[in-house]
Design brief:
Strand content: 25-35%
CATH architecture: 3-Layer(aba) Sandwich
Radius of gyration: 13 Å
Number of strands: 5
Shape: globular
Order of helices and strands: EHEHEHEEH
Length: 111
């Protein structure tokens, strides 16, 4: 399963308009740490695709997405539920699979 790329044109509909949990991985081509996080997001998407929607936002191609979402560091992963960012619940930098899994499991149970 390939995680779909989100753009400025479809962010509102696919992330803010989605009912349920959405995970957005903000990354850029020039960011070495982003590649590792991207692989982790791909793995999580395979495991949680039945309940969570995953997207990747290339802020090199879509800088407004980074600005609009106050992305200060890459990689950054934001979590949205029913179109609302969850209290700046985020992971910044290179984190392990288990770190993301714990947050997703908590958010699934909480919401």
């Amino acid at each position: 399963m390939t995680v779909e790329e989100i753009t400025l044109a479809n962010f509102r509909e696919n992330v803010l308009g989605h009912k349920g949990l959405v995970v957005v991985d903000f990354w850029a081509d020039w960011c070495a740490s982003c590649r590792g996080v991207g692989k982790t997001i791909d793995k999580l998407a395979k495991e949680y695709s039945w309940m969570v929607k995953f997207y990747k936002a290339d802020i090199g191609k879509n800088p407004s997405l980074g600005t609009d979402n106050k992305i200060m560091h890459l990689p950054s992963v934001l979590f949205f539920y029913d179109g609302t960012e969850l209290e700046r619940t985020r992971l910044i930098g290179s984190n392990g699979y288990e770190d993301y899994q714990k947050i997703i499991d908590l958010l699934i149970c909480k919401n």
